[in-house]
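Example record

The entry below shows one chain as it appears in the dataset: sequence first, then structure tokens.
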Amino acid sequence: MALIIPVLVRGINNLSDARYCAGMGADGLIFTLDPSLPGAVDVATVKELAGWVAGVELIGEFSATLPVSEINRLVEECGLQRVALRQPPTSPLSVPVLLHVPLYLLFDKRFTEETRAQYTALFPAGFALTSTLDSTLSDEQAATLASIAKHTPLWLRDAITPASLPTLLTQVRPAGLVLEGGDEIKPGLRDFTELEAVFEALEEE
């Protein structure tokens, strides 16, 4: 299934999600590997789930409390192609970074050319931004995000529904979208209603 924009799915913790999202055309699966974060999974789980899917990027999500050396170790052990971080690290990482930036900082225009240059130096393997939507964007807010997205890859997550997609895709033009995984009702049983609606809205005609 081909999608009109790249999609990542975070919070992957079960085989149902891993196989469904890969089959629906997701470009990457994000595993919470930092034990201090809710819903964290262990290395064995990542390896097991990764063994059932092909053609998707494996990404680990971490907080700012885990040492860079430990993140790099987990990158190697799990075969990650990228990491998602809540805050900038204290030293460079071995793979590209998805750095989360709160939406209010982007709207406050604190993300300047100087900030972009600092991140470019800090992330020699490359970086992109993620930010969380909490409501419908105004035209002014959409224009601000679009301006940032022209110069820096910007991935948006949360508050993503079939109804919100036209505005996001035509006005903001993000690099991609980050959708949310979920828990199984019981082993092998999962309700994909919300995810399916978004995937179908993103399907190429």
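Notes for this example: The helical segments are 15-23, 43-50, 68-78, 103-107, 113-122, 139-151, 165-172, 193-202. The beta strands are 7-10, 28-32, 57-62, 82-85, 97-100, 127-132, 154-157, 176-180.
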